[in-house]
Amino acid sequence: EILIEDEGIFRNFGGIMAVASDQATDICNHCDRAIPSSNIDLHYAHCSRNLEKCKVCGDMVPKKYAEEHFLNTHAPVSCSLCSETMEPEILAVHKGENCPRRIVTCEYCEFPLPAIDLFEHQEVCGNRTELCHLCRRYIRLRERIDHESRCNGVRNITAESSRNTREAERERAARRRPRHEFSPKRLLFTIAITGIAVLLGSLFFQRKPGNSEMH
């Protein structure tokens, strides 16, 4: 807008829209622009009276809008998340990358939380365990990526196969085992019954001769 306004002044004072390549020019000591030599005095008078150079960005701005330009473009602003003040041009980068209150997600559970709390959360979250479906072991989440890149499940599958083989052999041995086996308690019971039977038999035969003599 300032450039157009300045060019408008050139139009009003000679209709010059641009500097021809073969036309002699001078540098304005106020705005540092190349101005046709024939208009340098007129330009300088207007330029120095109406424009001033911004001390922050170096742009030439109308003097009556200098304060507004500074407030809108360069005045420190506060971050709405952490209230830190900074120049407007770095506010977007601050909110996206540097603000401690910006929302980030945990790399293990993807839970959203402020960046300032991320480290403590991940220290706890990373120690949780999940079952690896390849090797059937429980792996800490912080070690999951490295484990998955190395795990092929061979070691534990072999162990499970060996364990299953031992269980199958035990089952076959149980099926081959005789069905009628005497336990120690059953053996003692049998001996006791046999002894009682022998004792009763001897008593019976001892009484029988006595009874025959009485007749």
UniProtKB/TrEMBL annotation:
Domain of life of the source: Eukaryota
Record GO cellular component, one term: mitochondrion
UniProt KW keywords: Membrane, Transmembrane, Transmembrane helix
Residue spans crossing the bilayer: 187-205
Protein name listed in UniProt: TRAF-type domain-containing protein
Native source species: Escallonia rubra
